[in-house]
Design goal:
Elements lengths: L5 E2 L5 E2 L12 E9 L5 H8 L8 E3 L2 H6 L10 E3 L3 E8 L2 E7 L10 H5 L4 E6 L8 H10 L3 E6 L9 H8 L7 E4 L4 H20 L1
Parallel strand pairs: 3-7, 3-8, 8-9, 9-10
Antiparallel strand pairs: 1-2, 4-5, 6-7
Helix pairs in contact: 1-6
Length: about 200
């Protein structure tokens, strides 16, 4: 039965309407971007974040330059000393909160706090110095956190075939190994979606 218009104190009639459907905010999902020193973690977060990314960059001192290998990144003048943070709304139902780890081993004590609560990780690799990413791969394997390996295409190319990278890192066939460009928003998005697929597959297994 239709509702009759309700009289108002001023004598006007108001027809009741259905309440507007509540709009749910997107589900917040935490994801970690990890890897060695200078592989492109800060660049990746900055490329895709819909907000001004929070970075904890510090100038590379002469002392740090003697510890960190700058041979493949001679123009690098700063380094992450705590973490990077950004976010991206994938669709109306899902929002990724991105936490980038520092790459140097001396900051490894921070990883447990940064990774806590994350659904998965993207391990960025520079094929010119694969040794630098072993620690990140080992960390996610040890913690049994879903992850994918993203080979950053510096200068638009990679030094090794993906099968060779998988063999060198000794990761299982179930771990995706992809090529991406940390400077390109769409490329970073696709790599992050690969991690989401890994996390979803883990929950359904």
């Amino acid at each position: 039965m239709a509702c009759a218009p309700s009289p108002t104190p001023g004598g006007y009639s108001v027809t009741p309407t259905e309440p507007a459907a509540a709009v749910r905010p997107p589900l917040p999902v935490k994801m970690v971007i990890a890897g060695g020193f200078g592989v492109g973690k800060t660049t990746a977060v900055g490329s895709i974040s819909e907000i001004e990314p929070l970075t904890t960059e510090a100038s590379i001192t002469e002392v740090a330059a003697g510890v960190d290998d700058l041979s493949h990144t001679p123009d690098k003048t700063t380094t992450t000393v705590a973490m990077d943070f950004g976010c991206i709304t994938i669709d109306p139902t899902l929002k990724l909160y991105l936490f980038g780890t520092p790459g140097q081993e001396r900051f490894g004590f921070m990883w447990d706090d940064i990774v806590e609560g994350a659904v998965g990780g993207l391990v960025i690799v520079d094929t010119r110095r694969l040794d630098d990413c072993y620690a990140a791969v080992d960390y996610f394997e040890h913690k049994q956190i879903p992850f994918a390996v993203a080979v950053n295409a510096f200068d638009g190319k990679v030094e090794h075939e993906l099968d060779d990278v998988r063999w060198a890192l000794d990761v299982s066939d179930g771990v995706p190994v992809v090529v991406f460009d940390a400077r390109e928003r769409g490329s970073v998005r696709d790599a992050l979606l690969t991690v989401l697929e890994q996390a979803l597959a883990r929950t359904e297994a």
